[in-house]
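Entry 14. Structure prediction run on the chain below.
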Amino acid sequence: MTTQHDLETLRFAPGQVILHRQFTGDRLVYVRAVRVVDHDERGLRLWIPRDTAMSLTLTADGRGLRDMPFAEWVKVERTLTETRWRGPNIFMFMPAGAAHSVLFFWYPAEEFFGWYVNLEEPGVPWRDETAAGIDICDQDLDIWVDRDRSWSWKDEHELAERLAFPDDYWVSDEHAVRAEGLRVAEKIEKGEFPFDGTWCDFRPDPRWRVPAGLPPGWERPRAR
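Output returned:
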């Protein structure tokens, strides 16, 4: 098991398959097998192609968190369900120690069309005998950035709705989340790294194959 000292120096190897996991409190709600592009002092870079193996939380009739009011979601029975990522190819940058990640989207497969800033608790990397990965808690409020670096908030209504349920909601400080978003927005407007064109021409190693499924150890307790 990874120790606290290890967390400060843990580096994943380029090409390694790890688990990108999302929690609400101690509950695992989302996990996918992703490929490491690189990992250094700037942070962790991941490649998440279409058809990536994953599990996400759904109700028995196949509905997700966004398919119903939050008041209903917190009461209904739900379980992790195996599926595949059906969105665009994603290059993800997780800056070291930052409370956000930056997703680079391509669609069609070879054309970069924008950044998505996911506001989240700083990721915690881990490694044990059977698997390795990084654990986050999504903060719901996000930012969409067009190629010309014009930007807008995303999912403000979801944050507002869920804050009305403090006993069930995992975001405790709305102002801190928004402040993190504004710090990133300043970089966007100035065209600073990573919104300066870096990695917009990224291409994955052609030898990489989409993992057949989630590796053993995907359901281990959250790393903190």
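The first strand starts at residue 17 and ends at 24.
Filed with the rest of this week's runs.
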